[in-house]
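Batch manifest line 257
LIGAND: magnesium ion
JOB: complex structure
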Amino acid sequence: MFMEKAVELKSAEELATMRRAGAVVADILVLLSKTIVPGMTTGDIDRIAREELKKRGAKPAFLNYHGFPAVICLSVNHEVVHGIPSPKRVLKDGDILGVDFGCVIDRFYGDSAVTVPVGTVSPEAQRLIRVTRESLEKGIAAVKAGARIGDIGAAVSAHAEAAGYGVVREFVGHGIGRALHEEPPVPNYGKPGTGPRLKAGMTIAIEPMVNLGTAAVETLADGWTAVTKDRKLSAHFEHTVAVTETGAEVLTRPTGA
Ligand code: MG
Ligand code: MG
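JOB STATUS: finished
ARTIFACT:
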Protein backbone atom coordinates (compact mmCIF):
# COMPACT_ATOMS: atom_id res chain seq x y z
CA MET A 1 0.00 0.00 0.00
CA PHE A 2 1.25 3.48 -0.90
CA MET A 3 1.38 6.18 1.71
CA GLU A 4 -0.09 9.43 0.51
CA LYS A 5 2.53 12.15 0.76
CA ALA A 6 1.87 14.82 3.32
CA VAL A 7 -0.41 17.61 2.14
CA GLU A 8 -0.09 20.75 4.21
CA LEU A 9 -3.30 22.39 5.42
CA LYS A 10 -3.13 26.16 5.76
CA SER A 11 -4.23 28.05 8.84
CA ALA A 12 -6.57 31.04 8.62
CA GLU A 13 -3.58 33.34 8.96
CA GLU A 14 -1.66 31.55 6.20
CA LEU A 15 -4.72 31.70 3.95
CA ALA A 16 -4.89 35.44 4.56
CA THR A 17 -1.31 35.79 3.32
CA MET A 18 -2.08 33.61 0.30
CA ARG A 19 -5.05 35.86 -0.50
CA ARG A 20 -2.64 38.80 -0.62
CA ALA A 21 -0.22 36.93 -2.90
CA GLY A 22 -3.12 35.80 -5.10
CA ALA A 23 -4.49 39.34 -5.37
CA VAL A 24 -1.12 40.68 -6.55
CA VAL A 25 -0.84 37.96 -9.20
CA ALA A 26 -4.42 38.62 -10.37
CA ASP A 27 -3.89 42.36 -10.47
CA ILE A 28 -0.68 42.15 -12.51
CA LEU A 29 -2.19 39.59 -14.92
CA VAL A 30 -5.12 41.93 -15.59
CA LEU A 31 -2.73 44.81 -16.19
CA LEU A 32 -0.57 42.73 -18.54
CA SER A 33 -3.60 41.42 -20.45
CA LYS A 34 -4.67 45.01 -21.16
CA THR A 35 -1.13 46.00 -22.13
CA ILE A 36 -0.35 43.26 -24.65
CA VAL A 37 -0.54 44.49 -28.25
CA PRO A 38 1.00 43.46 -31.58
CA GLY A 39 4.57 44.76 -31.93
CA MET A 40 5.53 44.24 -28.28
CA THR A 41 8.17 41.68 -27.45
CA THR A 42 7.80 39.03 -24.78
CA GLY A 43 10.89 40.62 -23.20
CA ASP A 44 8.90 43.88 -22.80
CA ILE A 45 6.20 41.99 -20.89
CA ASP A 46 8.76 40.40 -18.55
CA ARG A 47 10.20 43.85 -17.80
CA ILE A 48 6.76 45.29 -17.02
CA ALA A 49 5.98 42.32 -14.75
CA ARG A 50 9.26 42.88 -12.84
CA GLU A 51 8.43 46.57 -12.33
CA GLU A 52 4.90 45.81 -11.15
CA LEU A 53 6.16 43.22 -8.63
CA LYS A 54 8.59 45.77 -7.24
CA LYS A 55 5.88 48.44 -6.91
CA ARG A 56 3.80 46.03 -4.85
CA GLY A 57 6.64 44.79 -2.67
CA ALA A 58 6.25 41.22 -3.98
CA LYS A 59 8.96 38.81 -5.06
CA PRO A 60 8.94 36.84 -8.29
CA ALA A 61 8.01 33.17 -7.94
CA PHE A 62 9.53 31.89 -11.17
CA LEU A 63 12.87 33.75 -11.46
CA ASN A 64 15.71 31.24 -10.92
CA TYR A 65 13.23 28.41 -10.26
CA HIS A 66 15.36 25.47 -11.44
CA GLY A 67 17.30 28.17 -13.31
CA PHE A 68 14.33 29.78 -15.12
CA PRO A 69 15.70 33.15 -16.36
CA ALA A 70 12.58 35.38 -16.14
CA VAL A 71 9.74 36.39 -13.78
CA ILE A 72 7.01 35.20 -16.14
CA CYS A 73 6.42 32.38 -18.63
CA LEU A 74 5.20 33.58 -22.03
CA SER A 75 4.14 30.91 -24.50
CA VAL A 76 3.14 31.92 -28.03
CA ASN A 77 0.68 29.94 -30.21
CA HIS A 78 1.87 26.29 -30.32
CA GLU A 79 4.02 26.82 -27.24
CA VAL A 80 2.17 25.14 -24.37
CA VAL A 81 3.92 26.39 -21.23
CA HIS A 82 7.31 27.61 -19.90
CA GLY A 83 8.14 29.90 -22.84
CA ILE A 84 11.10 32.15 -22.04
CA PRO A 85 10.57 35.89 -22.59
CA SER A 86 12.92 37.44 -25.13
CA PRO A 87 13.53 40.93 -26.55
CA LYS A 88 13.71 39.21 -29.95
CA ARG A 89 10.26 37.62 -29.78
CA VAL A 90 7.87 40.12 -31.37
CA LEU A 91 4.14 39.47 -30.95
CA LYS A 92 2.07 39.62 -34.12
CA ASP A 93 -1.58 40.38 -34.72
CA GLY A 94 -3.46 37.06 -34.50
CA ASP A 95 -1.08 35.37 -32.05
CA ILE A 96 -2.33 33.91 -28.80
CA LEU A 97 -0.15 34.31 -25.73
CA GLY A 98 -0.12 32.11 -22.64
CA VAL A 99 0.82 34.31 -19.68
CA ASP A 100 1.77 32.30 -16.59
CA PHE A 101 2.76 34.33 -13.56
CA GLY A 102 3.43 33.93 -9.87
CA CYS A 103 4.66 35.89 -6.88
CA VAL A 104 5.71 35.47 -3.28
CA ILE A 105 4.48 37.60 -0.39
CA ASP A 106 5.65 36.93 3.15
CA ARG A 107 6.89 33.52 2.02
CA PHE A 108 3.61 32.39 0.45
CA TYR A 109 3.03 31.83 -3.26
CA GLY A 110 0.31 32.69 -5.74
CA ASP A 111 0.23 31.22 -9.27
CA SER A 112 -2.16 31.93 -12.13
CA ALA A 113 -2.25 31.89 -15.91
CA VAL A 114 -4.37 33.29 -18.70
CA THR A 115 -4.21 33.00 -22.48
CA VAL A 116 -4.79 36.30 -24.23
CA PRO A 117 -5.46 37.18 -27.86
CA VAL A 118 -2.90 39.51 -29.45
CA GLY A 119 -4.90 41.92 -31.61
CA THR A 120 -7.55 40.06 -33.60
CA VAL A 121 -7.39 36.27 -33.51
CA SER A 122 -9.16 33.58 -35.56
CA PRO A 123 -12.54 32.15 -34.46
CA GLU A 124 -10.67 28.84 -34.00
CA ALA A 125 -8.26 30.47 -31.52
CA GLN A 126 -11.11 32.27 -29.73
CA ARG A 127 -12.95 29.00 -29.22
CA LEU A 128 -9.84 27.24 -27.89
CA ILE A 129 -9.27 30.07 -25.40
CA ARG A 130 -12.92 30.05 -24.28
CA VAL A 131 -13.15 26.28 -23.84
CA THR A 132 -9.85 26.14 -21.91
CA ARG A 133 -11.05 28.90 -19.56
CA GLU A 134 -14.33 27.03 -19.09
CA SER A 135 -12.43 23.77 -18.41
CA LEU A 136 -10.61 25.49 -15.55
CA GLU A 137 -13.95 26.68 -14.14
CA LYS A 138 -15.34 23.12 -14.39
CA GLY A 139 -12.33 21.91 -12.43
CA ILE A 140 -12.83 24.60 -9.78
CA ALA A 141 -16.51 23.68 -9.53
CA ALA A 142 -15.50 20.09 -8.63
CA VAL A 143 -13.56 21.30 -5.56
CA LYS A 144 -14.90 20.95 -2.04
CA ALA A 145 -13.88 19.17 1.14
CA GLY A 146 -14.46 15.44 0.72
CA ALA A 147 -14.13 15.44 -3.08
CA ARG A 148 -11.14 13.77 -4.74
CA ILE A 149 -8.30 15.05 -6.91
CA GLY A 150 -9.60 12.76 -9.68
CA ASP A 151 -12.92 14.63 -9.67
CA ILE A 152 -11.10 17.81 -10.74
CA GLY A 153 -9.22 16.22 -13.64
CA ALA A 154 -12.30 14.35 -14.81
CA ALA A 155 -14.30 17.60 -14.93
CA VAL A 156 -11.53 19.49 -16.75
CA SER A 157 -10.88 16.85 -19.41
CA ALA A 158 -14.57 16.04 -20.00
CA HIS A 159 -15.21 19.63 -21.02
CA ALA A 160 -12.10 20.07 -23.20
CA GLU A 161 -12.41 16.68 -24.89
CA ALA A 162 -16.11 17.21 -25.64
CA ALA A 163 -14.96 20.18 -27.73
CA GLY A 164 -12.57 17.88 -29.63
CA TYR A 165 -9.37 19.10 -28.00
CA GLY A 166 -6.33 17.29 -26.60
CA VAL A 167 -5.63 17.68 -22.87
CA VAL A 168 -1.91 17.76 -21.99
CA ARG A 169 -0.88 15.04 -19.54
CA GLU A 170 2.86 15.70 -19.10
CA PHE A 171 2.28 18.85 -17.03
CA VAL A 172 -0.15 19.04 -14.15
CA GLY A 173 -1.44 21.37 -11.46
CA HIS A 174 -0.07 21.19 -7.94
CA GLY A 175 -0.39 21.99 -4.29
CA ILE A 176 0.92 25.48 -3.51
CA GLY A 177 1.67 27.54 -0.42
CA ARG A 178 5.05 27.87 1.20
CA ALA A 179 6.51 26.52 -2.05
CA LEU A 180 5.47 27.03 -5.67
CA HIS A 181 4.97 23.31 -6.08
CA GLU A 182 3.70 21.24 -3.17
CA GLU A 183 1.83 17.97 -2.82
CA PRO A 184 -0.44 16.79 -4.29
CA PRO A 185 -0.14 16.79 -8.09
CA VAL A 186 -3.41 17.94 -9.69
CA PRO A 187 -3.71 16.29 -13.13
CA ASN A 188 -6.08 17.59 -15.78
CA TYR A 189 -7.39 14.06 -16.29
CA GLY A 190 -8.60 11.38 -13.94
CA LYS A 191 -11.47 9.26 -12.76
CA PRO A 192 -14.16 10.67 -10.48
CA GLY A 193 -13.92 9.32 -6.93
CA THR A 194 -10.19 8.52 -7.18
CA GLY A 195 -7.00 10.14 -5.90
CA PRO A 196 -6.24 12.02 -2.69
CA ARG A 197 -9.21 13.42 -0.79
CA LEU A 198 -9.58 17.19 -0.62
CA LYS A 199 -9.68 18.79 2.81
CA ALA A 200 -10.61 22.30 3.89
CA GLY A 201 -7.40 24.34 4.12
CA MET A 202 -5.67 22.64 1.19
CA THR A 203 -4.44 25.10 -1.41
CA ILE A 204 -3.96 23.91 -4.98
CA ALA A 205 -3.26 25.33 -8.42
CA ILE A 206 -5.53 23.95 -11.16
CA GLU A 207 -4.10 24.59 -14.63
CA PRO A 208 -5.49 22.97 -17.75
CA MET A 209 -3.28 23.05 -20.85
CA VAL A 210 -5.49 22.33 -23.85
CA ASN A 211 -4.38 21.70 -27.43
CA LEU A 212 -6.31 22.37 -30.62
CA GLY A 213 -4.97 19.10 -32.02
CA THR A 214 -3.54 16.10 -30.22
CA ALA A 215 -2.44 16.08 -26.58
CA ALA A 216 1.18 15.25 -27.43
CA VAL A 217 3.86 17.74 -26.42
CA GLU A 218 7.64 17.96 -26.55
CA THR A 219 10.27 20.23 -25.02
CA LEU A 220 12.48 22.43 -27.19
CA ALA A 221 16.30 22.43 -27.05
CA ASP A 222 16.27 25.40 -24.62
CA GLY A 223 15.24 22.86 -21.99
CA TRP A 224 12.11 24.85 -21.04
CA THR A 225 9.67 25.63 -23.81
CA ALA A 226 7.02 22.93 -24.18
CA VAL A 227 5.34 22.88 -27.59
CA THR A 228 2.62 20.81 -29.21
CA LYS A 229 4.05 17.98 -31.28
CA ASP A 230 1.72 18.83 -34.17
CA ARG A 231 2.57 22.56 -33.80
CA LYS A 232 -1.11 23.45 -33.52
CA LEU A 233 -2.30 26.05 -31.00
CA SER A 234 -2.41 25.48 -27.25
CA ALA A 235 -4.07 27.45 -24.43
CA HIS A 236 -3.48 27.54 -20.67
CA PHE A 237 -5.47 28.92 -17.75
CA GLU A 238 -4.69 28.57 -14.05
CA HIS A 239 -5.99 29.64 -10.67
CA THR A 240 -4.74 29.12 -7.15
CA VAL A 241 -7.67 27.95 -5.02
CA ALA A 242 -8.29 27.10 -1.38
CA VAL A 243 -10.50 24.11 -0.58
CA THR A 244 -13.40 24.99 1.74
CA GLU A 245 -16.11 22.85 3.35
CA THR A 246 -18.59 23.92 0.68
CA GLY A 247 -16.45 24.55 -2.40
CA ALA A 248 -13.44 26.53 -3.53
CA GLU A 249 -12.20 30.01 -2.78
CA VAL A 250 -10.32 31.28 -5.82
CA LEU A 251 -7.33 33.22 -4.48
CA THR A 252 -6.22 34.58 -7.86
CA ARG A 253 -9.61 35.77 -9.16
CA PRO A 254 -9.37 39.40 -10.33
CA THR A 255 -11.61 41.78 -8.38
CA GLY A 256 -14.88 42.28 -10.17
CA ALA A 257 -14.48 39.12 -12.28
MG1 MG B 1 1.54 28.96 -13.23
MG1 MG C 1 1.26 26.29 -11.57
